[in-house]
Design a protein that fits this description.
With 190 residues, the protein is mainly β. Helices cover 7% and strands 67% of the residues. It has one domain (22-189): Beta Barrel (Porin), CATH 2.40.160. A hairpin with a 4-residue loop joins strand 11 and strand 12 (177-189). The longest helix is centred in the first third of the chain and has 14 residues, at 2-15.
């Protein structure tokens, strides 16, 4: 019951009208590991910056081998730069609680971005880094999903401002092999 009241309070605080500038985003990002038959997941990310300083993020990822939902406050010390700290839970039993720290930098003029995330819980820790420098409709960057997905370069193609597809050949050193990750992004921002 306390959690429901807390969530209601957070939603009212974040979405109540305010005179200051606000920004909101909603992204959907599917990802598939090509060489691992059947391994996939999709991520839905939502964020709302209530003021120049404080906002809220919520993110849920789910696939056949992994799933997690997290939410928490964000802080934006400068335009295009935000930090978040959140709590979450894994979708599969025994449903351990997770702590998430993330940072996001978005260069609005070019569409370039840097997203870094550290996620830890009772059973495991996870590091995610996704960085792309866009040159028009083509971007190049780096991709890290550790410990189990790999590290490597990334190429992203954008169609208009809302749809992108990407490919990342990554090296997974635990398995000592190269993997090919393919994904996409549908972005709505206001």
């Amino acid at each position: 019951m306390r959690i429901n009241k807390f969530l209601l309070f957070v939603c009212l605080a974040v979405f109540a009208p305010e005179a200051q500038a606000q920004s909101t985003y909603l992204w959907f990002e599917p990802q598939v590991a090509v060489e691992k038959e059947g391994e996939y997941f999709g991520t839905i990310s939502f964020g709302h910056q209530k003021s120049p300083w404080v906002g809220l993020f919520a993110q849920t990822s789910h696939g056949n081998l992994w799933g997690e939902t997290a939410f928490g406050p964000t802080f934006a010390p400068a335009e295009g730069l935000s930090f978040g700290v959140g709590m979450g839970v894994e979708h599969y039993a025994p449903h351990p609680i997770r702590l998430r720290l993330n940072a996001y930098y978005d260069h609005v003029a070019t569409g370039s971005f840097l997203y870094a995330q550290f996620d830890t819980g009772k059973d495991s820790s996870w590091v995610w880094l996704d960085a792309v420098r866009m040159y028009g409709h083509v971007g190049v960057g780096a991709f890290v999903q550790m410990p189990s997905a790999g590290v490597g370069p990334k190429v992203e193609l954008r169609f208009r401002d809302h749809v992108g597809v990407w490919v990342a050949p990554v090296y997974q050193w635990q398995e000592e092999k190269l993997r090919l990750l393919v994904g996409g992004r549908i972005m709505f921002e206001h």
